[in-house]
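Lab channel / #folding
Pinned by the channel admin:
"Please post every new chain as: sequence first, then the structure tokens as a reply. Keep commentary short and put observations after the output so the thread stays searchable."

First post following the new format, from NK:
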Amino acid sequence: MSEIKNYRDLSVWQKAMTLVKQIYETTRSFPKEELYGLTQQLRRAAVSIPSNIAEGNGRGTKPDYVRFLQIARGSLFETQTQIELSRDLVYLSVATAPPLLALCNEIERMLNTLIARLGS
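Reply from TO:
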């Protein structure tokens, strides 16, 4: 197993970055009237996930790191909720929402594991 030197080496950060890119690609097809509504809110929530993982990693203490990972998890839950709302409003196709939600679930498990390991 290779040594983790910084946040970019974390699989959870890499997967969160993938989610952000997919959210940006997906929301390009949202209705124009949602540009400053759900589109922007969903993008911001998704961007917050890897951003908080990175910021927490740079804080230098375990309690700070855990706190920022918890904030990232909160942003992930916000992202999941907005994906579900977008699906229900039929802004996302039937085929688009499940892979996004599956990736969110994977990131959630990874964050939970990292939080548990750092918290002990």
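NK: The helical segments are 11-27, 38-58, 62-88, 97-119.
TO: also worth noting, The chain has a mean pLDDT of 94.
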